[in-house]
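subagent[fold] <- orchestrator: predict structure for attached chain, return tokens only, no commentary.
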Amino acid sequence: MCRSIVILRGEEPATDDEVRAAALQFIRKISGQRAPSRSNQEVFDRAVTEVADASRRLLDELVFPPGARPPAMAPSRIVAREKALARTSSGASGAAAAGAGAAARTEHRAST
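subagent[fold] -> orchestrator:
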């Protein structure tokens, strides 16, 4: 499996951005192209959208036995969320987000 694709099922639901990023990595891997040519852009984008849609349906419809724990959030998902938060916030709110991310990492390590 491509190491860039992470487990999206976990304690917190995957965001649409996370699902789309995983779909993009999957399509890049199976097509052997990091960036398609202009003549292939439309079919490449359509494949990413279809894989993302199928992945979202899968994640939304999975059913687990009562009491089953979802897997812990992958550390790479935690880091990616922190980076996205840092990009969207600035100044003091960015520092608060970074502190929250550090707490989430500590919590994740404690649960494993």
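orchestrator: received. Logging for downstream: Confidence is low (pLDDT under 50) at residues 104-112. The helical segments are 16-31, 41-61, 75-88, 91-111.
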